[in-house]
Structures
1.
Amino acid sequence: MTKETISFVYVTYIASTPERVFEAITRADIARHYWGHENISDWEPGSTWQHIRDTADRTVELVGKVVEISPPRRLVLTWAAASQADDPDAYSRVTFEIEEYGDMARLTVTHDELQAGSAMANGVTKGWPAVLSSLKSFLETGRGLNVFAGPKATESRQPAGHRVEGAPS
């Protein structure tokens, strides 16, 4: 029986060039500033890539292969949690398409072949918007966002009768 797969597509416009956007994805020294991770590979078709947390322990969180690369317009990767690297069914695919759009770059990220209902599918639907917003912020302002932040507690999210410390009365 074939498992159901889903796709996630995210499009953003960045006041930058396709070259700078492509470098931000593929250069570890740039990615760590907006992603909190480094993408490590020699970026040749068939080569492996690793998504390594930019912390002292340098945890490899994601792995895959470079399927296709055409700088600065297109990059296609396979993608799996490092803990599932030995399971061929755990891999999904990410395609980065970058095009010049006036004085901007249009970045389309398509994450497909995701197993419906999987932890990976759940994670990427939350993760890509944060990471790509941070990429946009970094390229436009020089400052990435905290992609590991969570929602702040607000009075409206608290149970009835609960007062948030420091909130106006």
2.
Amino acid sequence: MHLTGARMIEQIQQNAELVRSVARQQLSVDVGYDRAGVEWLAVRGKWGQTHSGQWIFKVNRLPSKGSDPIYHGLLDGFVTRQHEQGDPNNVKGLANTLGSFFGECIVQTYGGEWSEDENGWCVQFNEKNAVYPFAKTAKHLRNGPEDSVLSMFDTIPLVFKDIGL
């Protein structure tokens, strides 16, 4: 099923909230749509699918707040671990779910809005400037840290400084 327009944006927002809900319910962590949110998810675990197709986050070991300076972890590091340890067959599902969350972090931090153009779904800042969180998340999953979602997040205000970000 191919969703378009408002229905796709609704699905993106539901996927992003799924990430937050899993963090809240399984890890007792409130994660926001900001840089700290992008930095989140480097907890010692991985996403997986149940036999029914439901996405779940499995925690192998949760560090204590005192023993780990990045207790809340890094989305960037999590995505890197998925590249290193995850199932390559899960890239599309992970890219959709984590890309939704990543994109919402961009929208909430830098502005822009979800849009679809000839290259796919993106966060568009104006008619000439956009970023593609799904594509970037998929690249990070496939290629590892050299295609970091965090580095993209951090460079957005530098790359798009001429449009007031």
